TrEMBL record:
Keywords: Membrane, Transmembrane, Transmembrane helix. This is DUF983 domain-containing protein. It comes from Pseudotabrizicola algicola. The chain crosses the membrane at residues 75-95, 101-120. It comes from the Bacteria.
Length: 150
């Protein structure tokens, strides 16, 4: 029987394994808060300091964010998503309505740039929120910080 007062319980089959008895950091809520660029812990503090710079900690609940590691992940996801969305639309626009080539190129360049600027910080917020929710990279209290500034 799991002890509900403690977040961690030992596995009865393998006592070396520690499992969570309840999810105190639900992934879905954290991802939605990350999409809104809010703190995954409280949901109200702003996660970003600038366009893409993540704050060291939440200004309201003081949850630390400096553990995050996303590197090129948000940019890669943004490129993949926009490429898979815009390439078929560009082909459809080129084959079916057949507008002027310059007009088509300008519309798709502006649309791609605008969509990239909209999605990139949101993907970054979701990646930081996922790391927080799954207790990755020091978010769970275990330090795997190598001392390198992020
Ligand atoms: Zn917060």
């Amino acid at each position: 029987m799991l002890d509900k007062t403690n977040y961690f319980d030992l596995d009865p089959v393998d006592p070396c394994l520690v499992r969570l008895s309840e999810d105190d950091r639900p992934l879905r809520a954290a991802l939605l808060r990350g999409w809104r660029l809010r703190c995954p812990n409280c949901g109200t503090g702003r996660m970003m300091e600038g366009f893409l710079k993540v704050r060291a900690a939440c200004p309201l609940c003081h949850e630390a964010f400096y553990h995050h590691r996303d590197d090129e992940g948000p940019a890669l996801v943004t490129i993949l998503m926009i490429g898979h969305l815009m390439a078929p639309l560009f082909l459809y626009g080129f084959l079916s309505p057949r507008p002027d080539a310059f007009l088509l190129a300008m519309v798709f360049c502006a649309g791609t740039a605008a969509l990239s600027l909209f999605l990139l910080p949101r993907w970054k917020g979701m990646m930081v929120a996922r790391q927080w929710s799954r207790r990755m990279h020091g978010f769970g209290g275990n330090s795997d910080d190598d001392g390198q500034p992020r």
